[in-house]
Amino acid sequence: MALTTLRQILDHAAENGYGMPAFNVTNMETLLAVMRAAERTESPVIVQASQSARKYMDDVFAKHMFEAAAERFPTVPLCIHQDHGSSPDVCRSAMDLGFSSVMMDGSLEADGKTPASYDYNVDVTAKVVDIAHRRGVSVEGEIGVLGSLESGAGEQEDGHGFEGTLEKSALLTDPAQAADFVKATGVDALAVAIGTSHGAYKFSRRPTGDILAIDVIEAIHKLLPETHLVMHGASTVPEDLQQLINENGGAIPTTFGVPLEEVERSIRMGVRKINIDTDLRMAMTGSIRKYLLANPSSFDLRAIFKPGIERISALCVERFERFGCAGQASKIKTVPLAEMAKRYADEKMAEPA
Q1: CA 263/CA 283 separation, integer angstroms
Q2: pLDDT tens digits along 9-65
Q3: Distances in Å between the alpha carbon of 60 and those of 55, 85, 94, 151?
Q4: What digits encode the pLDDT tens for the residues 84-131?
Q5: What b/e string do you get for 247-257 counting C-beta neighbours within 10 Å, with b at 16 or more?
Q6: For residues 262 and 204, what is the distance between their CA atoms, to the nearest angstrom?
Q7: Measured distance CA(76)–CA(55) in Å, rounded
Q8: CA distance 272 to 289
């Protein structure tokens, strides 16, 4: 099956009331685990690569791994998404590699650390939307800055995230501004800030409304009922994975992620894309620790990675089933990027001079 755009998958999700987990991958093993889970549950799938993941994998290898995934799993509608593109150039390079979707994160400046002005965000995002739509590629934007409502601090996951602290108002997306942003940029999906953050250390306690602002999602959805909302930093950081790591030589302090029931509640409020990275990392590293502790003389890389692949796949199956996308794959009729580009060109031609 040809690559599917983010817009096509999320349109179908919205029409049928389900949410889409978007899994970050960093190597062949994580990609294979996600794809096996999608095939097993007959789910469409969004696979994401951050800028640092692309650098780690090497763009040439990444390009061919993603092409291989599409070839090996032909019944799975597959969207390859650039996560947190920090500039139009980064997004353009992802399109050149064949990505069917990009995120232009203009909430931060191109250094990935400095909070940007609203005008800067609109300018760079609108520019990427025009470039991408001319190629049939979808675009996700972001309004608001991801960070902790407990501490006001940002995070530096994969080198991305603001430094220092910000006021609470800066860490929550303003619904009215979000509506203006969508109108000004034409994005296909919108990431919003509600108190989640990247990495394992999201919350020091089980999150409630004062540190996880699900009500902001509800307010934005009322103003933008047709816009696909995105929840970043949505890993649940399961307690069993924390225990798996710590019982096998790790030292993860007690931490809390986003409860699955809160994710499911957000899906009912218009969230269509749910980003998941940390859970996959923990599943893999915990599995490797357990295997090596039990098999100290082993140096068989295949045996070392196999339990992690299986554990990641099982976790993805759970997310596909809980979020309602299991069984939806065959119902999505992929439109090639060239046809999506033609539709955009026709729309532009039809606009008043």
Answers
A1: 20
A2: 999 999 999 999 999 999 999 999 999 999 999 999 999 999 999 999 999 999 999
A3: 10, 18, 11, 40
A4: 999 999 999 999 999 999 999 999 999 988 989 999 999 999 999 999
A5: ebeeebeebbb
A6: 17
A7: 26
A8: 34
First to last CA, the chain: 38
- Residues pairing with 108 in the sheet: 115
Q: Which domains does the chain have, with CATH numbers?
A: 6-338 (3.20.20.70)
Looking at per-residue confidence, does 316 or 113 come out higher? 316
Contact 312, 280 (CB under 8 A): yes
Alpha carbon distance 215, 269 (integer Å): 9
Mean pLDDT within 75-79: 97
- The residues, any chain, with a CB within 8 Å of residue 80's CB and separated by 6 or more, are 3, 47, 48, 49, 66, 98, 99, 100, 101
Q: Which residues are catalytic, by number?
A: 83
139: which strand partners? 102
Rounded Cα distance, 326 and 30, in Å: 19
pLDDT at 266: 95
Q: Which two tokens stand for residue 115?
A: 């909070």
| Residue partners of 170: CB distance under 8 A and separation at least 6 | 115, 144, 145, 147
Token pair listed for 312: 């990641």
Residue 205 tokens, joined: 């306690």
pTM of the complete model: 0.94
119: tokens are 């005008």
Who's near 237: CB < 8 A, 6+ residues apart? Answer: 200, 202, 255, 256, 257, 278, 279, 282
Report the alpha-carbon distance of residue 340 to residue 52 in Å, rounded.
29
- In the three-class reduction of DSSP (H, G, I as helix; E, B as strand; rest coil), residue 256 is classed as strand
Highest-scoring range by mean pLDDT, 92-96, 163-167, 205-209: 92-96
> By the 8 A CB rule, do 161 and 154 touch?
yes
